[in-house]
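Journal club prep, shared notes

We agreed each person brings one worked example of a sequence with its structure written out as tokens. Mine is DUF4230 domain-containing protein. I'm keeping it raw so we can talk through how to read the token line rather than staring at a rendered picture. Sequence first:
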Amino acid sequence: MKQRRRSILVVSVVLALLVLIGLLIRCQLLPGDRFLAADSDARNLSPGRSIDTVPMLILQVQKCSKLYTAEYRVHKIVTHDDALRLKGQLMSKQFNLKVPLADRKIAIPMDAKIKAYIDFSEFSEQNIERSGNQITIILPDPQVVMTSSKIDQQNVKQYVGLTRAHFSDEELASYQQQGREAILQSIPDMGIEETARANAAKVLVPMLTQLGYEEQNITIAFRKDLDFRHKYQGLIRFED
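Then the structure, token by token:
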């Protein structure tokens, strides 16, 4: 009888220990499971996403405002030959004679400074093309401005015949204007478009690489239908 009671007691103690162990496991391990589950949910709710860098890029580019990309110093000699001629008709014959000692000639050396710039103040998403890892920046049209022009007065050469008056200030101003227009006409042959693109790239490419783009995936270009050689007049002006 005593041995039976002892066996029952032993079984009860064992059962009590098993229950206690079960409670301890539930209290200690289940929170860990909940933590792992919560961590897994957090990972599922926060998958890796690529950041849209376009707004940041637009903001940085707009800060450039006017980006001067090229500067040219041009030297030109403006010449004018003003010979006085006598024209008429005598006995049904036409004549065109050069009046002796009535020639006027002048050579005016001019120096002009020309700058090219790109205005990024209106830069927007329309200037950006993306395809996978590739990005293309379409530059705004380059603007060209003649910032200064002056006559080298010390080296002006002129010849005035004995029967002619010297060149007036109005005439000299007119020749200077002709020289400025001739310089502007020569701008398309200066390669200013490619120079502007290359120098703009030196500024924009580092911006793009800092935003995570690979340099080999970056293209800087003007719009495809920009015909700078034949339609540059609207891009050029004098600076007041």
